[in-house]
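[job 0417] fold request received: ABC transporter permease
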Amino acid sequence: MFSSYLTTSLRAFSKHKQHFALNVLGLSIGLAAAIMVTLFAVYELSFDRTQPNAERVYRVHTDYRSWGLQLVGTAGSDAPEMMKEQSQVEDVLLLASADGLEFYNAALALTVKVADRQVQLPHFYAVSGNLLDFVNLNVLSGSVQDAISLPDQLALSQSTAISLFGHTNIVGEQLNHDSGSYTVAAVFEDLPENTHFYFHTLTAVPKHAEPDVHGYVYMRLTPNADATAVETELNRTFNDRQQGRRKTLTLHMVPMLDVYFNSRGPFEMKQGGSEQVMWVSVALAVILLLVASTNFINLNIAAAARRAKEVGVRKALGASRLQLVQQFLTEALLVVSISGLIALALIEITLPWVNQMLGRNLSLDFSIWFLVSVVGVIILVGVLSGLYPALFISSFSAKRVLSGDLQRGQTAIWVRKLTLYLQSVLSIALIIAAVTIYKQMALVNDLEVGYGKTDRLLVKSLPSELLFKADNNRLFDSIRALPGVSQVTISNTNLTVDMNGELFLTWPNGEQIEGTQPTVSTGYHAVETLGLTLLAGRDFVPQYGADWAHTDDQDVRRYAILITESLMKLAGYDDPNDIIGKQATAHRGRTQVTIVGVVADVKLGSAKQQKLPLSFRLGVNSLPSADIVVKLDKSASPEQVSRQLQAMVVEQLKLHEVSITRIEDEYQRAHISEHRVQQLVLFFSSLAVFLTCLGVLGLASFSALRRQKEVAVRKVLGASRYSIVNLLAREYLVLIAAAVLLAFPASYWFLDGWLSHFNERISQVVWVYVFSAMFVALSTWITVALLAFRAASVRPSLILRYE
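[job 0417] inference complete; emitting structure tokens
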């Protein structure tokens, strides 16, 4: 029986090649999108699933939004440690970045000597001794437990061991530094990609560290614990220990399984994913598959007339309706199966491009689970999209069909119109979204942030003690001498990310400002190199050597600062010239600063963050690492300068390697989630419009065939080709006009919510909505016109000769 159905199906495909090709093309695209996005979603949701008791572990985040900042994935460890007394808290893990421990009386050497080079230990963290209860590590040699329990011991990742020693058999090896040495106690396998943890060097938290070390704090709760109650008690404990404006801060417990989607801010081990991007991808893929499936339903219903006599003859010869349903379902499943194979080929071809767009490393894994899932999707799509056409076609009466009396019925017409209407709504909405998101991201890219984004290189994360030296002229003079380099300075803050410190001043008029006041430690020529706009005063220049941070005979710390216009106004000054040369104090008079310049406001971080009053201070070495900022000539090649710059910095600072990037790339990275949404919406909207036109093409071809006699009569009566085209296109254009009534308000509501996350945003304009509707209408009209002109070109005598 099945072989008979299969033979009949193949004959039908051969006879109706255009119909078969349109179905396969549409379903292939829809299935490829669905499978591709499923791979992406499964990967995103797999993060940290294999960690011990992951469902009971929470990471403590600090909410700085009351300070005009954002939610940060780090917290002080004292309040969570006190929570261990709670019956619902089993254990607490601290994972602290080694470069911040000096603030807690527990400084660790960050650089070691390998041969004659200084090597900065990569992704170096101090951890409490219970790490292995929270994180799965595959230990290759030695004992990680010893490394995180005993002083001056290290556990290195496999890649770090190979980078430093050339092999992994290194347990017991010594790594010397200026104040002693470390002993390698263990080597562990590099962490998998699907975890938010990212470390390559581990050691124990020093015993003499202060109790409130700031870092990544994890709490494991008891089974059936009430996480909400624990968080409430945690905040009460935290708040009792705070003073002043720190009492406005709150702590949030984020489940470990959700940390990946909540780790896109500053100070993360690595940047996490975007739940928004994932769900937008899933929604768009489902939409695309639905559009392809409705096309399949429409085309099969529209093609019913071509199969009507076949059904009539089969019924006359004794075929039951069930057998006919089975026959047409077999055809549907065969079409979907062929489409599935083509979809897998499309995925394999386009995966490199998709990986580049999403920043992932997805691949087709032909495992049993994957193959069963694909077969299940094919069967589901085949049955759901093929059942209604099968029931509809098999319902034809043999007597009426064979006598030439075929009435399609209102149900089939309304099903076809409803599905076309929904396709038009989705197409219009997606185009509106694509254009609006593009305009918003163009605004973000061109946003005046107060510093230069183009023609600037960033040499990242260098030991700050090598850079913040008042007499460190040799290195910077050498960099300035490179062809294509205009100027150079240093900075301890990546302006595209977020603040790294604050400076609270008492101003000359006695004013003391409340609220967040970020500060950036920098070097000479900061205004010129960073691209700041000077409103009054001057830049930091070597001719004023006393500007550089130093301590005088009275043990007072002195240095020069630049302030932004908003900070100047908060301090009570309206004219920038009134504050130039004035002195302000900090730290109860132990620090005295001289204001030498006022610059235009600077926006730290992404476009979603507020502009904050900011200061730049000269020569203050406040953090373990800093960056070199290089301004290029307009005609310079960034790639060529980067190569020369890397060789020079490695040589002069005796480093193993350095990382160089462009500031404009760093700025783009701060908005990577929004850029991915833009690319996804543009890609899927293009496919949706294409599939909608594909469906219209198929339906219009059947409409032209059904109405060929009407067209012939109209031509005889003098109708032009243009009027015939409009006649055939009218029903589709009416549906698009009706689709506007749903697409416009739905799009406005969705996009207004998305735009509300930006401090600087565009206004939604009418022309974008009109353009989107007109584009879909024009695409539909052109699609119909291609067929209508051909139908209108046939001589009426060939159509009407038997009438």
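[job 0417] notes: The longest strand covers residues 89-97. The first helix runs from residue 2 to 15.
[job 0417] exit 0
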